[in-house]
Amino acid sequence: MQRVMVSFLGRGAEALGWRYRDAVYDFSGERYAHRYFGAALLAHLEEHGRRPERLLVLGTAGSSWHEPLAALGEDDLIDESLIRAVAEQRVTAADLAPFAGLSSGLGIEVTPLIIPDGRSETELLAIPGLLMRHAPRGAKLTLDATHGYRHLPLAGLVSALMLETLAGASVEAIYYAGLDMTAGGLTPVLRLDGVLSLVRWLEAVRVFDLTGEVGALADRIEQETGSTLSDDLAGLAFAEETTRLSDGFGLAAAVLQGLTRLEGPVASLIKPAIAERLDWARAGSRPERQARLALTLLARGRFNRASLMAFEAVAAELVERSRAGGGAHDREGLGADFNNLERGRRKARFPAERKLASAYLDLKDLRNGIAHAGPVSRPGAKAALRTETELGTFLRRIVTDVFPHLGPKSAGPTSGGKR
């Protein structure tokens, strides 16, 4: 994969000939004296074996385009027409021909890209398009967010994240030199990778909310911490996908316990949210855990799995109650018993039994229809399948009828109920 450095240009002071002021950039004890931070960063990356093969320099029509040429030791490439264009803020692509010489001198490909000021949404969205066209697919990106209008590096960061998603790129580091933090003649260089880490965590949590795929969290934990907790999360993802919840419950409990040992500044922000999303595993009995998971899946709009899990929970709980009361001892017997009740062949044993029987038979018909992509015959099941809202209302009602203590507060975090 090709290493690419993306560097933003700003506008220097008129009194200095539109150049930057001198600075000594301090990389935690490793120091480089330059005006243009990009030159210091290139030297630092080369020192640590991460020299880029390509440098993308982004600036507006008024940026100090002659500054990289001077700071990188190519003053002879600067002509008066470029300096006048900078002063008048009318630099064009034709004015940037000297950068071909800079490429030759550095031994890396240097590409100057004129970007708009970013005063409107249209101008801001032009920046990702430029980077998409000029950064090779799969590139390893280093972002220099030091110079330029303060909002432009933010657009660069979003662009880099877009490249990760759409072009297989990876952002290795984000650097910012705090010129306004200069003290004792040293300008500290900050690594802003923590911001990137937080964005990736949030993306993983978002994927988990939308899909229920805990594997996204497993990948993030392994990359950020190297914790073996990722193994439990990966196992939980497989158990949920294959509905082997006898394994899944134990793995979810292990993950919840392991979260208490997960360390790091970003992890400390994220782990309460992960724990909340696995809260269904804290319930007591197996049917209760299944019911909590069904409500959690429903809140994420995962109607297929929510329907299957709701049936498992309700069936297991009602069979247990029937067995304890001297009734049916398995699901087949429970279904036959409820059919007899609904058809008037026996009397209800308690006031709410008829309502539960009808709901259970509707849920069974619904579950079979969804699981096997077949037709449903009962009016209640047909009504539930008319819309997402009606299906959600039906599933939530029967689960909370059977498990009254699992109200709305127990349903788990919601992503809005839609994907």
Q: Radius of gyration from the CA trace?
A: 31 Å
N-to-C series of helices and strands: EEEHEHHHEHEHEEHHHHHHHHHHH
Largest sheet: 8 strands, mixed
Instruction: Please give the number of β-strands.
Output: 8
Provide mean pLDDT, rounded: 85
The SS-based structural class is alpha/beta
Characterise this structure.
The protein has 419 residues and is of the alpha/beta class. It has an eight-stranded mixed β-sheet with strand order 3-2-8-7-6-1-4-5, sandwiched between helices. It is elongated and about 100 Å long.
Q: What is this structure, in a nutshell?
A:
This protein has 419 residues and is an alpha/beta fold. 53% of the residues lie in helices and 11% in strands.
Q: Which helices and strands appear, and what pairs or packs with what?
A:
Layout: E1 3-8, E2 23-27, E3 30-34, H1 37-47, E4 54-59, H2 66-71, H3 80-87, H4 99-106, E5 109-114, H5 121-134, E6 140-144, H6 152-167, E7 170-177, E8 187-191, H7 193-211, H8 215-225, H9 229-241, H10 245-259, H11 265-277, H12 286-299, H13 303-324, H14 331-342, H15 353-372, H16 379-384, H17 388-402
Parallel strand pairs: 1-4, 1-6, 2-8, 4-5, 6-7
Antiparallel strand pairs: 2-3, 7-8
Helix pairs in contact: 5-6, 7-8, 7-11, 8-9, 9-10, 12-13, 12-17, 13-15, 13-17, 14-15, 15-17
